[in-house]
Amino acid sequence: MILVVAEQRDGTVNRASWEAVAAAQVMAGVDATAGPIVVALPGAPGNALDAAMNDLSAARVAEVLAIESLALDVYTADGYVAAMQAAIDALSPTVVVFPHTYQARDFVPGLAARIDRSVVTDVTGVIVVDGHLAFVRPMFQGRLAATVVPEGPVPHLVTVQAGAFPTDTARGDAHVPAGHLAVTVDRSTIRQQPEPPFRDTRQAVDLSKAERIVAVGRGIREERHVALARDLAAALGAELGASRPVCDGGWVPMDCQIGSSGQTVAPRLYVALGISGAIQHLVGMKASGVVVAINKDADAPIFEVADYGIVADLFDVVPEIIKALES
């Protein structure tokens, strides 16, 4: 059995969880012995967990399962390690799949140490090597890709990089069976004192959920020219993103940064304006559906991943695109 561990906040399942379901589907497709897929959602009994479970019931899997304990009313690493240890003991999966989120990065290493099992992080691909599941993951900020065959007894733990697996096959129209697994978590063993979840008062946009993104790089030359990119984004109904130098310069907020040290995105449309395409940036947007690049340097690496490329000065091209869109 492949066990996918989902995440929710205020009753909403995050997109990364659906990507983890898609990754599990790939695993089941390449390994006939992997068995059925079960999605587990840890949490405390209540409306938020019920709402998220209702959403997850549309997953194209064998079953969805609530991992319930009153001690999971707020997230703590100790609580989740204890809960998932109990769930793994009860369910005996061969692979446990997590979205590679901040939360998973916090508690999954501790879980792996607690149950003494292998963990492969930031997975972007799945293959079979000598009859065993193997996982592809980036190394050295995406410059190399390693194929990793986990050793030791099952279950192996895997975290899935955001944007690496399209979610088209993860959700269906039918509702799958939903169950509940009560686990015992001793509150006295929880060492963390959680604070309320961080919320950005500026209502920052989560670019990982954007359907269209216009990203700007150093080719925009000056801060005042960012307005041109904003105009194109408005015309396309898109969000504004940027490469690291533009964010470091303070021209756009840091939460707009896309790349290995920023957000990982997978929009249906990604328009790159004046972005050369350094590997650190490509790591963050390579899963985009359609990539359009505008750059006057014909040898810019961005053209190697672009579906459509325009070799021209963006200050000549973008105004014309905006005019066409507005007309």
Question: Which key phrases capture this entry?
Answer:
327 residues, five-stranded parallel beta sheet, Rossmann fold, seven-stranded parallel beta sheet, 2 domains, 25% strand, alpha/beta, single chain, 17 strands, elongated, 8 helices
How would you explain this protein's 3D organization?
This protein is an alpha/beta fold. It has two domains: 2-189, Rossmann fold, CATH 3.40.50.620; 207-326, Rossmann fold, CATH 3.40.50.1220. The protein has eight helices and 17 strands. The protein has helices at 15-30, 47-56, 77-91, 102-115, 226-236, 244-248, 279-285, 314-326, and strands at 2-5, 8-9, 12-13, 37-43, 63-68, 95-99, 119-123, 125-129, 132-139, 144-148, 156-160, 178-182, 212-216, 239-242, 269-273, 290-294, 308-310. The strands form four sheets. Strands 7-11-6-1-4-5-12 form a seven-stranded parallel beta sheet, sandwiched between helices. Strand 13, helix 5 and strand 14 form a beta-alpha-beta unit. Helix 5 runs parallel beside helix 8. The termini are far apart. The mean pLDDT is 92.
